[in-house]
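EI: anyone free to look at a 240-residue chain?
SC: sure, send it
EI:
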Amino acid sequence: MPIPTLQRTARFAAAIVIAAALPLAAAPVAPFSATYEVRRNGDVLGEATLQLAATGNEWQVTTQTRGTRGLAAAAGARVNESSRFRYLDGAPETIEYRYVQRTSFNSRERGAVVDAGSGRIALRNRDNRHDVPYVRGVVDRQLVTVALMQAVAAGRSGVQTLQVADRHEVEAQTWVIGGVEDVPMGARAERGLRVERRRDPSEGRHTVLWLDQDQGHLPLRIEQREDDGERIEMRLLRRG
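SC: here you go
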């Protein structure tokens, strides 16, 4: 697996970042652990483990992605993401985010620190640093999964406006919580709630995930199509 592919996988694997625009009434998403099969254009490339845990008054979600086949496996490629967050008005808000990718020949890091008290957000991408104004309810790119699960648990549907901390800015994103449909999972199919990012057609990207309504809204499958036609998927292998 080419290293850029692993970067794309980790970027969305865990990846798709969300902050709900309106207060949510549901209780916080329950702690969980789930392992996913990672595929590129239909071929299995590796695994990703997603975990959510409570630590006192704060929460933490982590994703560990590793290549198990091809060049990524040979290079020992791994991506670790960690988001420390709190609940604000019933929705997740990032406190600190860290992304680390390592191979046998290089590494890269990025992160974010949200300081609501001072009204600033510190963003870092490699050696580049940006200090931007605080936005209430902001989330990092990894916290998307929990924020979507929380929104669905609160009964939200339709168009959602999201505030996302990226490499050098906070941008508004639009997501659409749709209806329940069959989700192909290889040899089987399950019922899942479709959630899709709404983008400008000129971007050439397409991101969609399906949440399991019977298992705490855990993601069943995540799919992203790149502008060059590449398709990255994550399919749930096991819970716990």
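EI: Helices lie at 3-13, 70-74, 144-153.
SC: 👍
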